[in-house]
Amino acid sequence: MADVGTRKRVLSGIQPTHDSFHLGNYLGALKQWVALQESHDAFYCVVDLHALTVGPDPIELRRRTLASAAQLIAIGIDPAKSTLFVQSHVPAHNQLAWIMECLTGFGEAGRMTQFKDKSAKSGTDRTVVGLFTYPILQAADILLYQADQVPVGEDQRQHIELTRDLGQRFNSKYGQTFTIPEGYILKSGAKINDLQDPTSKMSKSAASQSGVIELMDAPEINMKKIKGAMTDTEREVIFDEKNKAGISNLLTIYSAITGLSIADAQNEFVGKGYGDFKSAVATVVVDFLTPIRAKAQELLQDPAHLTSILRDGAEKANLVASKTLAETYEALGLLPRA
Ligand code: AQP
Fold it and tell me: What's an example Gene Ontology biological process for this entry (predicted)?
């Protein structure tokens, strides 16, 4: 393991918008969080301020924030290796976000496809300004920690690009202040699709949960969802995203969990039908998720332990974030408080 001082830094976050993370979150992003904590100085946060864009119930938000921390530890985030914290515990996130908002063009923010998709679904009158400025807060989250890399799913590529643009814009206008981060996005598995609508990404806010594999769901529910996944009417298990979106999505999941290449995974099912294939995928997924669910449930029995981990994480995060914020204020010419 490289020395802490020489290790590159990673930062990423996840929203506590649901009681459970889903398999897309895990394979697209969280699995990489776990791996990167071995080689990098890792900062991971539960981005509760981002979750406010969907107007959550206060009791649910509090419960889900703690449940998110429990799931992160259950999948393997080790608080002794990673700084694990809650975004709202570090005030510098909001403070830097305002500065970044003052550097972002209105048209530039309006081109974010996630905003366009989500606001189109709910209509302009029901879309909050926070959803529009969401990617700018995300840029602040990343730039505050001088992150070199940001492990995320494919859907975040455009937001990382915006973060880079804002960091570079600040640096060229006010002097070198921010590390310009790179997205850490997998070639395979960066977009896991919905099991019932295999051309759309698996999403916490999907209209129906029947195509979403939740980490905290009971094994029999996930078994049933995978066995009932939407596929085509052919028989051969072949990776072909254009013509066999459902089968390709299941092969991607199978390959990501078993560690086999897509080609090797495909070879395993030569001469076998879709029924056998789906059963095999369901078994590896359920075997993988069962201990994670049990561990998260166990951690949730002791909320005081979880909150103390998050308090320690916030302290460490605050040290880094407040240093960057002070440098930013200085570069901008904000008068220091006497
Ligand atoms: N389907 C997916 N495949 C691969 N990666 C995914 N991610 C999300 N969905 C998939 C990645 O998970 C990380 C955390 O996601 P998030 O909760 O911060 O944001 P999100 O993209 O809003 O998650 P959802 O489930 O899609 O929620 P909604 O429905 O609210 O939009 C991110 O790195 C993301 O790329």
Answer: tryptophanyl-tRNA aminoacylation
Using only the alpha carbons of the chain, give its radius of gyration.
21
pLDDT in tens, 51-76: 999 999 999 999 999 999 999 999 99
- Region of residue 160 (left: phi > 0; alpha: psi -120 to 50; beta: else): alpha
Q: Under a CB-based contact definition with an 8 Å cutoff, are residues 142 and 177 in contact? A: no
CB 10 within 8 A of CB 150: yes
Report how far ligand 1's centroid is from the alpha carbon of 203 (Å).
Answer: 6
> What is the pTM for the complete model shown?
0.96
* SS3 of 231-253: CCCCCCCCCCCCCCHHHHHHHHH
- Using CA atoms, how far apart are residues 186 and 115, in angstroms rounded to an integer? 23
- Residue 50 Cα: closest atom of ligand 1: 18
In 171-234 the beta strands, taken as DSSP E runs, fall at 182-184
| Catalytic member of 204, 225, 244, 278 | 204
- Domains identified in the chain and CATH numbers: 7-187+301-330 (3.40.50.620), 217-294 (1.10.240.10)
Query: Which residue do the tokens 């560690």 mark?
Result: 259
Mutate to test the pocket of ligand 1, among 50, 155, 191 (most ligand atoms within 8 A of CB): 155
Task: Give the model confidence (pLDDT) of 210-263 as tens digits.
Answer: 999 999 999 999 999 999 999 988 889 999 999 999 999 999 999 999 999 999
Active site residue 201: yes
One-letter amino acid of 205: S
Closest ligand 1 atom to residue 54 Cα is 30
Q: Is 204 a catalytic residue?
A: yes
Question: What is the edge-to-edge ordering of all strands in the sheet holding 41-46?
Answer: 82-86, 41-46, 9-14, 149-151, 182-184
